[in-house]
Amino acid sequence: MNGSKHTASFVPLFIASFLCALCLAVSCHAQEDKRILLLNSYNMNLSWTASVTNGVKAELSALGPSVRLYVEFMDTKNFLEDRYLDLLKQQYRLKYGDVHFDAIITSDDDAARFALKYRDELFNSAPIVFCGVNDMAFPARDDFKNSTGVLELTDIAGTLDSALRLQPNLKNIYIITDQSTTSRIKRKEIQHISKDYGDRLGFIWLDDMSMDEIRKTVSNLPNNSAILLVLFTSDSHGHTFTFTESLVRIYSVANSPIYGMWDFYLGNGIVGGMITSGHVQGEMAVELAAEILNGKKADDIPVILQRSNQYMFDYAVMKQFNINPDLVPDNSLVINMPESIYIKYKFEVWTILCVFALLTGVIIILLINKAARRKAEHELEELTRYQESLIEERTHELVARSSQLEKANYELKKLDTLKTGVLNTVSHDLRTPLTSVLGFCKIIDRDFKKFFLPVCSMNEKLGERGDRIRDNLGIIEDEGGRLIRLINDFLDLSKIESEEMVWNDISLSPALFLEQIRPILQGYFVDSNVSFVLRIKSNLPRIFIDRDRLLQVLTNLVGNAVKFTQEGTVSVIADMTEGRWLRITVEDSGIGIPLEELSNVFEKFYQVNRDSEAVVIDRGSGMGLAISKQIVNHYGGTLKVFSEKGKGSSFILTVPPGR
Ligand code: ADP
């Protein structure tokens, strides 16, 4: 079932495809079948013939590639005898006997006549389209049938009028013709219209002359003359010339402007005239042939009289003969016009203009930039000036302040010196009587104990009084001793600071020294719960130092350690640093120093606030550590503290090795 369904649907599809292919093939065949023969009267070297041929080819190419063009040149300007025409017939029969032409286009009179006469014999009775035919009676011939075409109507009057217009004083026009068919036709026309010009213009014929005679004549024409070159392809001596050759020869010697009627002369020496174009003739013939190809009968297409002539002039030749180019009629085509510099160098002009505009733009930008930079520089200069004045002002102020400070410093130093002097004096003055007071106090206590206390013991009341007196004497002794220590500390510090201290430096063995002062240090631990340890490492470096000052430092450190330690151990350890400096560490297991106070303990008169702590401590002067640091610093050493509240403290002094 399925298979038959498929077959059924394929049948109409196949038929449609076949019909399409057939139509395509038929249309292609039809297009390919179009053949046109272009039969030229003259040969290809004749610019007119070339112009017609080009016109035919150009117009045919617009019709598409389906039309094949065959081109023949009969060359009847050179050969017109019957023998030659018979040969041509034989040739064409051989070539085109089997070819079916859809149309024959002929150019000029000879080809038109030949085609009309031998069409049935040579060209399968193909329809004829003629062009370039000057013989106006041609379409009236008896054998004119199945034909149409373009009659070439040269506008002789238009050319003569243009000559009169360009040369207002023109008197005579010399007409050059040959014996060709076209020339004979044109001669008749000119003779006919010459009557219209009456006395205004004389017509002088230069025909049946040799080229040399013509050249001689045109080189000696009177003033206010002009030449009308109709056609001249062969002279009276039988010499033949192309259109261009004959014009060039005549033009090279002519003393008067030459006018013409065909475009093949323009650009080769004629001034111009009402010009007929071979190219246009060819184009128009193809237009008529196209109608025949489309199925129209040639006899149904009327013969055209070509009226596409146009005024054309050569600027360069006009200039040569001093003809004012402004005199040419309106809508004229003028060739060889000097190109304006702008037209000639359009690209260069625009390039230069663009470059110029670009450069101008760049220059403007640079100028704007420069102005902006100048403005910025100016502003910067002003700012710099302002800053300099500000700095100068501030400098003056600072100098003034500095001198004020110097003055104040000087005053302060003076005051400090004065204060130190006063304090020194006061301290000395205090120490002497204080020593006496303490001495007498001891003597009184001794005498009182020896002589009065035994007597007092007899009476209970006196005994009590006696004990109280001894206690009071003890207090005086203690306080006096404290006062003397305070004064001594103060005097030491002040001597070090004022560099008045006398240093009795000697070379010292640390181990020996420490062994010698061991009893002194142990003395601090009498009546104490704290044990003392002294450890001395061997090979300690010798130091150069004042023995008493080092003792002062160590007794101060050990005294503090004992004072701030309730129980445990105070250790004095002597060893050396990696750099072989003597290092003595005084370590205790006492109450320690709060972290925030550590940096202050070496300051003068500084004492850590112990009010909150449940320890009763003998108040010192607050100068012991300050003096110790000054002494160690004097020897280039260091004194540092490490402590933790409640766990103990370590004071570490280092002294550089000495002699
Ligand atoms: P003072 O004569 O008052 O002891 P110092 O200059 O010797 O003065 O000591 C300053 C302060 O440093 C002391 O008041 C004390 O509070 C603290 N201090 C010094 N040594 C120790 C120590 N080993 N343990 C705890 N506190 C110490």
UniProtKB/TrEMBL annotation:
Signal peptide extent:
1-30
Q: Which SUPFAM superfamilies match?
A: ATPase domain of HSP90 chaperone/DNA topoisomerase II/histidine kinase, Homodimeric domain of signal transducing histidine kinase
> Top EC class per UniProt?
transferase
Annotated transmembrane regions: 349-368
User: Keywords in UniProt for this one?
Assistant: Kinase, Membrane, Phosphoprotein, Signal, Transferase, Transmembrane, Transmembrane helix, Two-component regulatory system
Q: Which reactions does this protein catalyse? A: ATP + protein L-histidine = ADP + protein N-phospho-L-histidine
List each coiled-coil range: none
Q: Name one GO molecular function term.
A: phosphorelay sensor kinase activity
**Top-level lineage group:** Bacteria
In terms of SMART domains, this protein maps to: HATPase_c, HisKA
PROSITE patterns noted in UniProt: HIS_KIN (PS50109), PROKAR_LIPOPROTEIN (PS51257)
Q: Where is the Histidine kinase domain?
A: 425-659
InterPro entries from the UniProt entry: ABC_transpt-TYRBP-like, HATPase_C_sf, HATPase_dom, His_kinase_dom, HisK_dim/P_dom, HisK_dim/P_sf, Sensor_HK_Regulatory, Sig_transdc_His_kin-like_C
Q: Does the keyword DNA-binding apply?
A: no
Query: Known EC number(s)?
Result: 2.7.13.3
- Name of the protein this chain belongs to: histidine kinase
